[in-house]
């Protein structure tokens, strides 16, 4: 029995899910992770590198990898692709100027073969800021409809600041992953 | 007998003739060995420079091919109205760019850091020109699917602000989505020269975001609290801002002075600027140089109350804890410095 199959077995037993959070810098990835884990979000420095959090969510253990989004370190995202069950793409809905960048980076990411099986949750974050685009508008700008039909995806508006929408998003993601990899439940 | 003394110890002293042959053979062997050794020693560095060279050749080659593809796409589609969409071609280009990026990442361990930097710069330029070509070439109707599955895809929505109606229009410019096209949705000062721009945020209104972009030689005074603040393309400006209780994103600024208080501050592509900051977290710079930092020094009537409201009334000292994402080493980054005390401005009062 290979190491990989042992790991898979353990993973199945513990009902672990590996979730990768990515998105442009300043989109609120770290804030989302801390908020959903009930931690203080008032002092968060831009992420240099990555953070890992294991969160018990329903009956699953979410292993969340929050990877920094600064331009300099985006090329390292690919080091985290392996074995990803769920992908969370975070958008700063108030940063209209960089939506083009956001679209480019997202579609670049989705070309990655190692992520082809992962469920995709898009958080249209910062909905609490006046003047941000709605999830519908973001979906249109990011051209999500054109996405490969075989991928499970969903866009959810949220505010990491107030916490609104976060659970809805994670609920969907976890259910979607569970229905794929733990079919017997 | 003297001969045998000079001969190597393993050569048996015998007849003078055979002795000489042996000696010659031995010398030849030693030479062969030392040649072998030298070639082994020389091999390693050689192969390294070789692979750098071959990497650079490959890199230049793909760069040229991408550029020529891009120019061909933009020419063919500008000369005649494209009957078939150039989209697949553009996607190919995007794929080649990302392959190139991958190549750089894989080779980065053997490249000198200068090469890595220039290669990354080239790649980002390529991406930029791909974006430009795409926005020019792709027919604008791309974005007009709007009735498919919309309700299903969004499960949370807030009513869009009234101004954003314009975004929903199928305007010809929509797909480009640059600052000029959607940027007007957010309030801000744009495209001004040599002006004094003043704004006071009324506490009765909901606090939102504010943008400064394409300003030259201006002085900007923003009073009151803000939720998010974006700055883009400023030259020789002075910017004084009240507390921002979200994040600040600054890109492409040169020769400016900023006085800012915020929870998070990110600075990209800044040249020769002074920042007087109060930040709850560590400010970061990326692709910047000649930037200097000092403590926040802004005063206006009621600023204490605003700072308190934004949770920024305490000096954290973080203005000097700058992280340079282009300088991930223990030694001080050459790109930024602390403003020497006698170069700092006095307290700035705005009214």
TrEMBL record, chain A:
Q: Which NCBIfam families match?
A: small_GTP
Residues holding GTP? 23-30, 69, 125-128
The keyword Zinc is annotated on this UniProt entry: no
Q: Which domain of life is it from?
A: Eukaryota
Please name the GO terms that the record assigns under molecular function. GTP binding
Enumerate the residues binding Mg(2+). 30, 47
Reply yes or no: does the keyword Transmembrane apply.
no
**Which species does this protein come from?**
Cinchona calisaya
Q: Name one Pfam family in it.
A: Arf
UniProtKB keywords: GTP-binding, Lipoprotein, Magnesium, Metal-binding, Myristate, Nucleotide-binding
Q: Which CDD domains match?
A: Arl2
Designated name of the protein: ADP-ribosylation factor-like protein 2
Q: Which PANTHER family match?
A: ADP-RIBOSYLATION FACTOR-LIKE PROTEIN 2-RELATED
What InterPro entries does the entry give?
A: Arl2, ARL2/3, P-loop_NTPase, Small_GTP-bd, Small_GTPase_ARF/SAR
UniProtKB/TrEMBL annotation, chain B:
The similarity comment for this entry is: Belongs to the TBCC family.
Keywords recorded for this protein, A-Z:
Acetylation, Chaperone, Cytoplasm
The molecule here is called C-CAP/cofactor C-like domain-containing protein
Q: Which organism is it from?
A: Cinchona calisaya
Keyword Acetylation attributed: yes
| Domain C-CAP/cofactor C-like intervals | 161-327
Whether rRNA-binding counts among this entry's keywords is no
Q: Where is this region: Disordered?
A: 1-24
Pfam families linked = TBCC, TBCC_N
Q: Where is this chain primarily localised? A: cytoplasm
What is its subcellular localisation?
Answer: Cytoplasm
Report quaternary structure and partners: Supercomplex made of cofactors A to E. Cofactors A and D function by capturing and stabilizing tubulin in a quasi-native conformation. Cofactor E binds to the cofactor D-tubulin complex; interaction with cofactor C then causes the release of tubulin polypeptides that are committed to the native state.
* Top-level lineage group: Eukaryota
A single GO CC term for this protein reads: cytoplasm
């Amino acid at each position: 029995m290979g190491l990989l199959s042992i790991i898979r077995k353990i993973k199945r037993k513990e009902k672990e899910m590996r979730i990768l959070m990515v998105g442009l810098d300043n989109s609120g990835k770290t804030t989302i992770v801390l908020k959903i884990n009930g931690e203080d979000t008032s002092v968060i420095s831009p992420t240099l590198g990555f953070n890992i959090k294991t969160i018990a969510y329903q009956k699953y253990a979410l292993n969340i990898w929050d990877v920094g989004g600064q331009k300099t370190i985006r090329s390292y995202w690919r080091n985290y692709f392996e074995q990803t069950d769920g992908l969370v793409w975070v958008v700063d809905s108030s940063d209209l100027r960089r939506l083009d960048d956001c679209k480019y980076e997202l579609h670049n990411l989705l070309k990655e073969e190692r992520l082809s099986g992962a469920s995709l949750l898009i958080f249209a974050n910062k909905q609490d800021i006046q003047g941000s685009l709605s999830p519908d508008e973001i979906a249109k700008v990011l051209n999500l409809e054109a996405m490969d039909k075989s991928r499970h995806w969903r866009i959810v508006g949220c505010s990491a600041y107030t916490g609104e929408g976060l659970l809805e998003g994670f609920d969907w993601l976890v259910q979607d992953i569970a229905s794929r990899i733990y079919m017997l439940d | 007998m003297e001969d045998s003394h000079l001969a190597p110890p393993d050569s048996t002293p015998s007849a003078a003739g055979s002795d000489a042959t042996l000696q010659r053979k031995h010398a030849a062997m030693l030479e062969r060995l030392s040649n072998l050794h030298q070639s082994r020693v020389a091999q390693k560095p050689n192969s390294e420079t070789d692979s750098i060279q071959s990497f650079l050749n490959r890199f230049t080659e793909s760069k040229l091919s991408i550029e020529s593809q891009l120019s061909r796409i933009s020419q063919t589609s500008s000369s005649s109205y494209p009957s078939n969409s150039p989209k697949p071609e553009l996607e190919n280009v995007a794929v080649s760019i990302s392959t190139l990026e991958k190549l750089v990442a894989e080779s980065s361990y053997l490249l000198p850091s200068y090469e890595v930097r220039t290669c990354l710069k080239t790649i980002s330029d390529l991406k930029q020109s791909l974006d430009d070509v795409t926005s020019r070439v792709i027919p604008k109707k791309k974005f007009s699917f709007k009735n498919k599955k919309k309700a299903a895809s969004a499960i949370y929505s807030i009513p869009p602000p009234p101004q954003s109606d314009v975004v929903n229009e199928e305007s010809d410019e929509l797909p480009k989505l640059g600052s000029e096209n959607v940027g007007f949705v957010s309030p801000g000062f744009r495209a001004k020269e040599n002006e004094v721009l003043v704004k006071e945020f009324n506490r009765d209104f909901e606090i939102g975001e504010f943008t400064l972009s394409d300003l030259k030689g201006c002085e900007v005074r923003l009073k009151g609290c803000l939720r998010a603040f974006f700055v883009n393309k400023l030259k020789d400006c002075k910017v004084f801002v009240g507390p921002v209780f979200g994040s600040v994103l600054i890109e492409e600024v040169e020769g400016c002075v900023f006085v800012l208080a915020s929870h998070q501050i990110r600075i990209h592509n800044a040249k020769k600027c002074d920042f007087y900051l109060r930040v709850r977290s560590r400010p970061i710079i990326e692709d910047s140089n000649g930037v200097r930092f000092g403590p926040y020094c802004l005063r206006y009537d009621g600023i204490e109350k605003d700072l308190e409201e934004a949770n920024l009334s305490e000096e954290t000292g973080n203005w000097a804890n700058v992280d340079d994402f282009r300088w991930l080493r223990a030694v001080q980054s050459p790109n930024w410095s602390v403003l020497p005390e006698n170069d700092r401005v006095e307290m700035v009062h705005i009214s």
